[in-house]
Amino acid sequence: MYLICMKGYYNMDLTSPRTIRNIQEQFGFTFKKGLGQNFLTARNILEEIVDAAEIESGVIEVGPGFGVLTSELAQNSDKVVTIEIDERLIDVLDYTLAEYDNVKIINEDILKLDLKKVIDDEFNGEKVSIAANLPYYITTPIITKLLEEKLPIKNIVVMVQKEVAERMSAKPSTKDYGAITVLCQYYTEPSIVANVPAKVDSAVLKLKVLDKPSVEVKDEGVFFRVVKAAFSQRRKTLLNCLSANFAIPKDEISTLLESIGIAPSRRGETLSLEEFANIADTLLQKIK
Ligand code: SAM
Questions:
Q1: pTM
Q2: Distance 205 CA to ligand 1 centre (A)
Q3: Residue identifier of the C-alpha nearest atom 22 of ligand 1
Q4: Disulfide engineering: 202 pairs with which of 50, 82, 172, 196, CB 3.0-4.6 Å?
Q5: What is the CA radius of gyration of the chain?
Q6: What is the pLDDT of residue 10?
Q7: Whose CA is nearest to atom 6 of ligand 1?
């Protein structure tokens, strides 16, 4: 009897719909759509995420659900810290991950958590990878937080909606290119590792965090203000957007843009990161 239990315990296949149903029944668990609870069942996608994360020793996961990706991460790293907002899942995770002694579960909202402290306390401040099947309703805030807090992160590998992955890896002069593209490509080198056809088409996005930002700027705050202004009204010219957002007369903006070889009639979506940097550095003299 003992052996049979042990076998079942060690062979728990969290990608199997039957196992998921059994756990749901055992814990009386019902999915909350509002928390983006869509659980992964494709084993090949789990492997793609783990491979792309290139875990050195530590990994942080956002939103473990029943722990399907967590267990894969636990088998491929020294330590996993996984952050789950839904307290109903903590007992489930204690059960599904019981065989791993290298997993720490934190019951918190990722957007409110002091991640710098978590990395300091749990990983001695060393570089970690981030891996997740992200809750789709807060994909952009999570990625923005991970990048803007300048944490010691090696790679961010996340399953997201396909259109979000395309936006983050877009090239200038395409419909997907926007402020979030510039943010991602300032801090990271993005690539789409796998496409996941489903009810909502998804993709595994890898953001390889750069040692230093992809372009050099004198003032990061001004750089991101320029980016935000340039995309504030997509149909308007750069001249109009910058003049309105920085409250500087049009003729001055026009002269400034022409002095660096950028036509004032261009639109934000056509600008490369280098051009945004150039505008921000030149504008800096006017606003400081
Ligand atoms: N990793 C699991 C999988 O692939 O099957 C579950 C992924 S599911 C798309 C997203 C998970 O994130 C859910 O478990 C959900 O409860 C959790 N979640 C939602 N909002 C969160 C937040 N603000 N902080 C932490 N976890 C969150």
A1: 0.94
A2: 17
A3: 109
A4: 196
A5: 22
A6: 53
A7: 65
Q: Which of 29, 59, 85, 142 to mutate to test the pocket of ligand 1 (most atoms within 8 A of CB)?
A: 85
Q: What is the DSSP string of 142-195?
A: HHHHHHHTT--EEEEEEEEEHHHHHHHTPPTTSTT-SHHHHHHHHHEEEEEEEE
Provide the phi-psi class of 58: left if phi over 0, else alpha when psi is between -120 and 50, else beta: beta
Least confident of 65-69, 110-114, 281-285: 281-285
- Sorted by sequence, the CB contacts under 8 Å of residue 18 that are 6+ apart come out as none
pLDDT value, residue 7? 37
The tokens for 128 are 């970690």
The DSSP annotation for 209-275 comes to: E-SS-SS--S-HHHHHHHHHHHTTSTTS-HHHHHHHHHT--HHHHHHHHHHTT--TT--GGG--HHH
What is the tens place of the pLDDT at every residue in 142-187?
999 999 999 999 999 999 999 999 999 999 999 999 999 999 999 9
Q: For ligand 1, is residue 67 a contact (CB within 6 Å)?
A: no
Instruction: Report whether 284 contacts 219 (CB < 8 A).
Output: yes
pLDDT at 5: 41
- Which residue is it, tokens 């090239």? 171
- Rounded Cα distance between 243 and 130, Å, is 39
pLDDT over threshold 60, residue 28: yes
* Mean per-residue pLDDT of the chain: 94
- Which one of 39, 92, 160 would you pick to mutate in the ligand 1 pocket, going by the greatest count of ligand atoms within 8 A of its CB? 39
Q: In what order do the strands lie in the sheet with 202-209?
A: 103-106, 79-83, 58-62, 128-133, 153-161, 202-209, 188-196
